[in-house]
Amino acid sequence: MVLLRRPGPSDDDRGWVTAFVVIFAVALVFVAGLVLDGGRMLSEHRRAGNLADSAARAGAQAISEDLVRAGAAEILDTDAAEDAACAFVASTGYSCSAVAVGNRVDVTVTGSIDLLLLPGASPQVEAEGSACVAVGITDATC
């Protein structure tokens, strides 16, 4: 008598679906981490850039009344400008470095991002901004 096997999965095919689901779930979590943390990184870079530009503008508002009254070409109080720029950044969690020369304020902000789904990484964020004091109506840049 000949025994015929029914067509269908053989005994050694058991567990393949489980392995596929596990591999697919790990890949899905990794891709979700890239999307979520990548979006957060892009957002923080944009935030740092906006913060650096705003801090530079805040520093550029520190003009010296004495220099304005004297009619000087460079009217920015450099010490007050650096202090004002870093005071603007102080409450944000970023560190600040400001340099004021002439009528120009350059600001660099530095911080880090704590990633949610890609653990162990804490990339640095750094952005630079600058602003000038405009004296009168002119086409010149500082």
Please render the helix and strand layout as text.
Elements: H1 16-60, H2 65-70, H3 78-89, E1 95-101, E2 104-112, E3 124-132
Antiparallel strand pairs: 1-2, 2-3
Helix pairs in contact: 1-3
Walk me through what this model shows.
It is a single chain. The protein is an alpha+beta fold and 142 residues long. It has one domain (14-132). The protein has helices at residues 16-60, 65-70, 78-89; strands at 95-101, 104-112, 124-132. The protein has a three-stranded antiparallel sheet, covered by helices on one side. A hairpin with a 2-residue loop joins strand 1 and strand 2 (104-112). The longest helix has 45 residues, at 16-60.
Features:
single chain; 142 residues; three-stranded antiparallel sheet; 3 helices
What is this entry, summarized?
With 142 residues, the protein is an alpha+beta fold.
Number of strands: 3
Q: Give the CA-based shape.
A: rod-shaped
Show unreliable segments.
none
Return the string of H and E elements.
HHHEEE
Give the mean pLDDT.
85
Oligomer: single chain
How much of the residues is beta strand, in percent?
Answer: 15-25%
Structural class by helix and strand composition: alpha+beta
Overall number of domains:
1
**Proportion of residues in helical segments:** 40-55%
Q: What's the number of helices?
A: 3
Major β-sheet annotation = 3 strands, antiparallel
Rg calc: 29 Å
- In whole angstroms, the N-to-C terminal distance is 100 Å
Strand order of the largest sheet: 1-2-3
